[in-house]
C-alpha cells in the first residue's frame, strides 16, 4: 500500500439502523456529533435509514422504506397505469 494516503484517525463507531433499531460497531473515520451507549460502552453514532438487517436484498422480504411519502405519491400518480396492467 502507498504510504500517507489512508486516514489514521480510525475509531470504533456505532451505526444504528433507524428502521429496525439494529446497532452494529465498526471502525470508521466519519465525523459524528451524537453518541450512543451500546452494551455498556459509549460510541459515536451514525444513524442510517437502511442496512443489511433491513434491506430487501439481504432479508428476502419486500419492504418499502418511505420517510417522505414518496411511494404514496408515486402510486397515486401512476395508479391508473398499474390498474390497467393488472387486467
Short account of what is shown:
This protein has three helices and four strands. The chain has helices spanning 56-59, 70-77, 79-86; strands at residues 11-17, 23-28, 35-38, 41-48. The model has no long low-confidence stretch (mean pLDDT 81).
Write the layout of secondary structure elements.
Layout: E1 11-17, E2 23-28, E3 35-38, E4 41-48, H1 56-59, H2 70-77, H3 79-86
Low-confidence stretches: none
* Mean pLDDT across residues: 81
Query: How are helices and strands ordered from N to C?
Result: EEEEHHH
How many separate domains?
A: 1
Rg, rounded, reads 19 Å
Helix content, binned percent:
10-25%
What structural class results from the helix and strand content? Answer: alpha+beta
Q: In total, how many beta strands?
A: 4
Q: Roughly how many Å apart are the termini?
A: 59 Å
Quote the beta fraction.
25-35%
Main β-sheet description: 4 strands, mixed
Shape: elongated
Number of helices: 3
How do the strands of the widest beta sheet line up side by side? Answer: 2-1-4-3
Describe this structure in words.
- The protein is an alpha+beta fold and 87 residues long.
- It has one domain.
- The longest helix has 8 residues, at 70-77.
- It contains three helices and four strands, in the order ββββααα.
- A four-stranded mixed beta sheet has the order 2-1-4-3, with no helix packed on it.
- The protein has helices spanning 56-59, 70-77, 79-86; strands spanning 11-17, 23-28, 35-38, 41-48.
- The mean pLDDT is 81.
Structural descriptors:
87 residues; alpha+beta; 23% helix; 29% strand; 4 strands; four-stranded mixed β-sheet
